[in-house]
Amino acid sequence: MFALDALHLARLQFAFTVSFHILFPALTIGLASYLVVLEGMWLWSKDNLWRSLYHFWLKVFAVNFGMGVVSGLVMAYQFGTNWSGFSQFAGSITGPLLTYEVLTAFFLEAGFLGVMLFGWNKVTSLTHFMTTCMVALGTLVSTFWILASNSWMHTPQGFSVKHGQVVPDNWFEIIFNPSFPYRLMHMSVAAFLSCALFVGASGAWHLLRGNDTPAVRKMYSMALWMALFIAPVQAMIGDMHGLNTLQYQPAKIAAIEGHWKNVPDEATPLILFGVPDMDAERTRYTVEIPALGSLILTHSLDKQVPALKTFPKENRPDSRIIFWSFRLMVGLGLLMMLLGILSLWLRFRHRLYHSRPFLRFTLYMGPAGLLAMLAGWVTTEVGRQPWVVYGLLRTRDAVSHHSALQMGLNLLLIFIVYCAVFGVGYFYIFRLIKSGPVPAKTLTLDTDGTPARPLSATETFQEQEKKNEH
């Protein structure tokens, strides 16, 4: 660790905290909207099966939301402690955007979250449903502002530079910068897809262990319908995002493809696999398909994709990282589409809840959405290098002046604390999932004026364990 300089240690620390944090908002966004659907179906049908699922996933949502808030605070502090050059240069834009996120999304979520968690027996059903909708809306508004800030760093516009600092000129152009719509759609759908796979894996786990209840079947079925329809949509959004990236960050696309030089009057091949070599300026051991790169990336057979050698060495992203992170993301996406197609086939054969190989496949695909999202973020952020604000501020000029020893100790401490604190959180979430939904027949529509206790899942878990023993 201490062989690295302060710049690389600062990048590792931010990458670690961001990667840890993004898992929580992704599930929060997906689960919040899922809870809206569940409570809406209960209001419409008054079938307690929906209410059972709502309370089950509300517990998971509550714990996940809390861990997301805590992990996000660390990231905000890092802008000042580790990236003071960035804060000084671009703080006049990123600061207000993050403030808008707090003033709108976070206050909206926090304002209604208490009623959503503890007010089930204190307010009317319609009022409670409204609070659930407001919390879900808050998660999407938060996504809006965070991605507006991140997208501006990739495709900056609507500003001028005065005295070495960015000055906002047009906030509409800043927020709705060229890459923002694609990033917003891509991240939002990724969150929904990650949540669907997470819910589906939970249902598969229970079915594999013989907990074949109507509630488990329902959440399992809903998750697989979501995967069937949303995974192809995500692929189409990814294609549009790729065309946008080719226009505004062509060096990133060249590094993703491991494409070093063009042959005159020849379409660009698609390199399926290979080993990029940054020093030799080539990709070794390539397995490629002629002309397919041009077809996918430019939607034509005569246009060429920009090659890495056309960019100065100091402006090239590290192809060795994003070449593989991109392929990991795409590979997991193909598996998600396969999961959806197989589920449809088994559904028509009436084997969806009984095929143990497919149940295991669904269980193993549980973390696939989150892993694909992490791979996508690695591709996006490493592909932006060596820039923090693309074309304006280099990463080496954005970092604070700390020693490698200071940054190394800080990274080690954060790693230990994160693994301890959030490891316990994940363990508790898995305990909640293991308890399973409460049988719908044990729920009543009567209210006794006592607030609900969505975090009191330990008792439920212990009671379920006792029942299983008998």
Helix content: 55-70%
Number of β-strand runs = 6
The string of secondary-structure elements, in order, is HHHHEEHHHHEEHHHHEEHHH
Number of helices: 15
Which band does the percent of strand residues land in?
Answer: 5-15%
* Main sheet specs: 2 strands, antiparallel
> What does the oligomeric state look like here?
single chain
Q: Give the averaged pLDDT, no decimals.
A: 86
Please state how the strands of the largest beta sheet are arranged side by side.
1-2
Q: Radius of gyration, Cα only, in angstroms?
A: 24 Å
The assigned structural class equals mainly alpha
Ends distance: 52 Å
Write down the overall geometry.
globular
Low-pLDDT regions:
445-470
Q: How do the strands and helices of this protein lay out in sequence?
A:
Blueprint: H1 6-45, H2 48-81, H3 84-118, H4 125-154, E1 159-162, E2 165-168, H5 171-175, H6 180-208, H7 214-248, H8 250-257, E3 270-277, E4 282-289, H9 292-298, H10 319-348, H11 356-364, H12 368-384, E5 387-389, E6 393-394, H13 395-398, H14 404-435, H15 457-469
Antiparallel strand pairs: 1-2, 3-4, 5-6
Helix pairs in contact: 1-2, 1-4, 1-6, 1-12, 1-14, 2-3, 2-7, 2-14, 3-4, 4-6, 6-7, 6-11, 6-12, 7-8, 7-10, 8-10, 8-12, 10-12, 14-15
